[in-house]
Amino acid sequence: MYYPDNLVEEVRARNDIVDVISSYVRLQKKGSNHVGLCPFHNEKTASFSVSRSKQMYKCFGCGKSGNVITFVMEYENYTFQEALKLLAERAGVTLPEIKYTKEARERDNLKARILEAYKEAGKYYYFQLRSEAGKRAYEYFKDRGLSDDTMNKFGLGYAVTGRNLMYRYLKSKGYDDSVLKEMHIFYMNEREGMTDMFWNRAIFPIMDVNHRVIAFGGRVMGQGEPKYLNSPETMVFDKGRNLYGLNHARTSRKDNIIVCEGYMDVIALHQAGFDQAVGALGTALTSGHVNLLKRYTSNVLLCYDNDGAGTKANLRAIPILRGAGVSTKVINLSPYKDPDEFIKNLGSEELEIRLKNAENSFYYEIRILEGDYDLNDPDGRTRFTNEVARKLLKFEDAIERDNYLEAICTKYRINIESMRKLMGKLAAKGEGIPEYERPRSLVSSAKKDSDSGIRKAQKLLLTWLCEEPELYGQVDKYLNEDDFDEDIIKTVAGILFDQIKQGTANPAGIISMFTNEEEQSEVGSLFSTKLEKLNTKAEKEKAFKDILIKVKEHSFEMQAKLGDPADINRINLALENKKTLNELKGLRIVISE
Question: Which pLDDT band, with edges at 50, 70 and 90, does 362 fall under?
Fold first, then answer.
């Protein structure tokens, strides 16, 4: 639903950012700001700063920034509307009821009832495990080395022997067949009606990032097929967009996420102290999974089983992760098959060493490829070299591609110039197009990987004018939103300038005008770029003017590239621009003490 800007601003203004963030993060007053350890990445030295005057936060370690709404969206993994609702309730602000179509209202009501029923089913399984009937499953978990605390953390349960016990239980709680049918944890047949999918199975509740039960996995106790049974996809569960254990891993202080295969692998890793582990729910890693992972980390460690299937899973996952810009390494579990077995035999300290020594994903790909060829045979070596060249062409970044080219050629004693020529021939045939599905970026593709040069100057200028809006009056005749390159910066600059003209600069309010968390974080960074520490008034005045001139020079250079160079109007404009720059260079900027 769309909420009016004035209502969004009221909710934001009535939730002091320091008060809200303090309920999640321990903050200490330092000068005019409050600082603490960033909740979005692992750090030992506090680089997370919260400004009460700006009503904004900024981490100078990972770069995340925004206002109180952005923070709740990022931390709780909420949509803009969900975050606004939470903050409205906190501040006692009544939001207007959402106006649905009849079909949309019925769908949302059904979805809510399904989630309620899943929660009730999870509770039923949970208590059955801890009853006399669940003794066998409880002992199974104990034999696998799980503590009671770990079982409780993951909500593990047991489906007792009986064909329709869960069905009868949920019916007794008031859920009708239309809801139970959509849960997809029951079988339908004409003779017996609805019967339970799970019985005599240890149960693993699958939860979304907000700890809501959305599906179940079950491991049979004793003989029976299949050994593992998972509930199918529903209107609340998409296995390609959910990761087992992410509801816990997303709050880990580690700077990476471990992706492994099975439920027990994830649980065993968490119990051993690796609380950043997640599982791919029995399916290959998808771009949906990667989009989800990117919210919480830029570093992924693959920890699939040490067998042929695990190798295939690694090789499928690596290009998707690389295409999304996620740094990826592969953990060596040899001589054991999976993380659970490894920990039982060698312990968590040895696994920590394996994590630190995880193999670069490209080196892993080449090492596996090497096994397909006899490098002592000239023909085998030639075919191997051709495949390596094709893989190198998958790198879109030239510097990254050259770094790997040099490393691989050195390792396999391949002449680097011959490899370059081979890559050129293959590229000419169109063999350099990446095969992965690139997850859609929500922020303008014009955004650079690092803020340097003109982009940094533009951000510095906006930050400075936000902090000292009185300076705008000295330069407004020279500056407008068209002096900024990217659409999002241009838009923000125009809003900020209008605000200053009306007597107030409200950066937190500007952030609220954007409903996407990536856009909010990007807008937040425009008002929290770190200004160089300057000691004297004269140094500050000179620095501000230098930044302004740099922005204007770039703006004029961009203008000069448009149109016909021989056009008289363009020539006149160039002369006017040169005159303006000379005026700026002679302008005296006055900054208050």
Answer: very high
Angle in degrees, CA 308, 312, 318, rounded to 5: 140
Cα–Cα distances in Å, from 511 out to 96, 203, 451?
22, 43, 19
In CATH, what number does 453-586 get? 1.10.860
- Residues carrying CATH 3.90.980.10, the chain: 100-237
Q: Tell me: pLDDT of 152 over 90.
A: yes
Instruction: Give the span between the Cα atoms of 307 and 313, in whole angstroms.
Output: 10
What φ, ψ does residue 259 adopt, rounded to 5°? -105, 120
CA 274 – CA 348 distance, rounded (Å): 8
For β-strands 277-279 and 257-260, DSSP reports them as parallel
**What is the rounded distance in angstroms from the CA atom of residue 169 to the CA atom of residue 590?**
75
Taking only the tens place, the pLDDT of each residue in 184-243 is 999 988 787 899 999 999 999 999 988 999 999 999 998 888 999 999 999 999 888 899
State the sign of the Cα–Cα–Cα–Cα dihedral 296, 319, 314, 384. negative
**CB atoms inside a 10 Å sphere around CB 437:** 14
Contacts of 121 (CB under 8 A, 6+ apart): 166, 169, 170, 183, 185, 213, 216
pLDDT (mean) for 280-288: 84
- pLDDT the model gives residue 564: 58
State the number of CA atoms in the 13 A half-sphere of 281 facing the CB.
25
pTM equals 0.65
Q: Between 492 and 535, name the one with better pLDDT.
A: 492
The answer to whether 40 and 59 have CB atoms below 8 angstroms apart is: yes
Query: Are the beta carbons of 554 and 561 closer than 8 angstroms?
Result: no
**307, two tokens:** 């067998």
Query: How far apart, in whole angstroms, are the C-alpha atoms of residue 21 and residue 38?
Result: 11
**Element holding 243 (H helix, E strand):** none
How does 101-111 read in b/e, with b if 16+ C-beta sit within 10 Å?
eeeeeeeeeee
Task: Retrieve residue 310's tokens.
Answer: 């695990």
65: β partners = 58
The pLDDT value recorded for residue 438 is: 38
Q: Provide the residue type at 443 as one letter.
A: V
- Whether domain 100-237 has CATH 3.90.980.10: the reply is yes
Return residue ranges of the chain for CATH 1.10.860. Answer: 453-586
**Domain spanning 5-91, CATH architecture:** Alpha-Beta Complex (3.90)
d(CA 372, CA 368): 7
Pairwise CA distance, residues 577 & 581, whole Å? 6
Give ranges for CATH 3.90.580.10 in the chain: 5-91
Q: What is the DSSP string of 419-432?
A: HHHHHHHHHHTTTT
Distance CA 217, CA 204 (A): 5
pLDDT confidence band for 566 (50 / 70 / 90):
low
Which tens digits make up the pLDDT trace of 395-443?
A: 878 888 999 999 999 999 999 999 999 998 888 877 755 444 433 333 4
